[in-house]
Specification:
This protein is mostly helical. It is built from 14 helices and 5 strands. The strands form 2 sheets. A 3-stranded parallel β-sheet has the order 2-1-3, with helices on both faces. Strands 4-5 form a two-stranded parallel sheet.
C-alpha cells in the first residue's frame, strides 16, 4: 500500500525478482483502458517483465465497484495460488484493500430502472437535493457522502429503493467474515516527510504533462458516450484537464488544480494508512527498503 507517487510499482517489481510473486493491481483508475499517462500505468515493457493483473479490464464508459474488485481479485488470487505462487497486491485504493481483507456486504444488484429514475429526479432537482433525500432515509450513509458525489448518492438511494433497507444497515449486518480468507501481511511505502511526497507528486505530474497527458484526455473526450460525470473521468488530473479542454480554465490553472487534488488524495491515503492495523511502513527512499521488506516476507513465509 502507499500514497500516490510513493514508488509502489518499482518496489513491487524488485520484490518479484526475489520471490515467486505475481502482481495484482489495487487501483480504481488502472482498470480503465486508454487511461495510461495520467494514471502512471506501467508501460508495455514493464508489464512484459512484471505482468499486472486487473489492469485494462474496463472501458472508461463502464463502472467498476468495490464489489467488482473483490470478486476479480479473489479469482486472480486463486489462479496465482493454483500455480504455487503468491499474490502481491499493489496500489493506493485503500477501500479496495480493506474490502478484500475484511469482506464486503452482499448488496442488492444494480437495477437499471431504479437508477434511471434516480437520475431523472436528479436532473430535475440536482444532486444536493438527492443528498437531502438520502439524508431522510439513511442519515448515517449521507453523513459520509458529499452533496455532489453523484455516484455514491445514486448507489445508496438505489440500494434503499431496491431493498427497503438503508445502505448503512446492510453494512452493519455484515459480520466482516471472508470465506477462505488467506493470510495477509501488509506493507506501506511512506516517504519520511510530506514535503518529499509533495515534491515527488509535482515531478510526476510535470512529467505526465510533458509526455502526452493533455493529448490523452483529448482522445478520451472524443469517445461517444463518455462524459466528465463518469467515474473514470473523475480521477485526479483527468477532471481538471477536461475542464481546460472545455475552455473553463487555462492549462496552467488546470495543472495547479490537478496538483492540489493529487496532494489532497495523498493526504487522504496517508490518513487511511494510519488507521490500518498491523501495518509495516517503510520509506521508499531508504537504500535498504527492498532488503527490509524482503526480510519481513521471509519471516512471513516461514511462519
Amino acid at each position: 500500500m502507499g500514497p500516490t507517487a510513493s514508488g509502489k510499482t518499482d518496489v513491487a517489481i524488485s520484490l518479484c525478482r526475489r520471490f515467486p510473486l505475481d502482481i495484482i493491481s489495487v487501483d480504481s483508475a488502472l482498470v480503465y483502458r486508454g487511461m495510461d499517462i495520467g494514471t502512471a500505468k506501467p508501460d508495455a515493457a514493464t508489464l512484459r517483465r512484471a505482468p499486472h493483473r486487473l489492469i485494462d479490464i474496463r472501458d472508461p464508459e463502464q463502472s467498476y465497484s468495490v464489489g467488482n474488485f473483490v470478486r476479480d481479485a479473489r479469482a486472480e488470487m486463486d489462479a496465482i495460488f493454483a500455480k504455487r505462487r503468491v499474490p502481491l497486491l499493489v496500489g493506493g485504493t485503500m477501500m479496495y484493500f480493506r474490502a478484500l481483507i475484511e469482506g464486503i456486504a452482499e448488496l442488492p444488484p444494480a437495477d437499471a430502472e431504479i437508477r434511471a429514475g434516480i437520475d431523472a429526479d436528479a436532473q430535475q432537482t440536482g444532486w444536493p437535493a438527492m443528498h437531502e433525500k438520502l439524508q431522510s432515509v439513511d442519515p448515517q450513509t449521507a453523513k459520509r457522502i458529499k452533496p455532489n458525489d453523484r455516484q455514491r448518492i445514486q448507489r445508496a438511494l438505489e440500494v434503499y429503493l431496491a431493498s427497503g433497507k438503508p445502505l448503512s444497515a446492510w453494512h452493519e449486518s455484515h459480520d466482516g467474515q471472508v470465506k477462505k480468507n488467506p493470510r495477509f501481511v501488509k506493507f506501506a511505502l511512506q516517504p519520511a516527510t510530506r514535503e518529499v511526497l509533495h515534491e515527488r507528486i509535482e515531478t510526476r505530474l510535470n512529467f505526465m504533462l510533458n509526455n502526452g497527458f493533455v493529448e490523452e484526455v483529448k482522445v478520451l473526450r472524443e469517445r461517444k458516450g463518455l462524459t466528465p460525470e463518469h467515474p473514470s473521468m473523475r480521477a485526479v488530473g483527468y477532471r481538471q484537464l477536461w475542464q481546460h479542454l472545455d475552455g473553463d480554465c487555462s492549462l496552467e490553472q488546470a495543472a495547479g488544480k490537478a496538483l492540489a487534488a493529487t496532494r489532497q488524495l495523498a493526504k487522504r491515503q496517508v490518513t487511511w494508512l494510519r488507521s490500518e492495523q498491523g501495518l509495516k511502513s517503510f520509506d521508499p527512499l531508504e537504500a535498504n527498503t527492498i532488503d527490509a521488506i524482503s526480510g519481513c516476507l521471509i519471516d512471513f513465509f516461514d511462519a
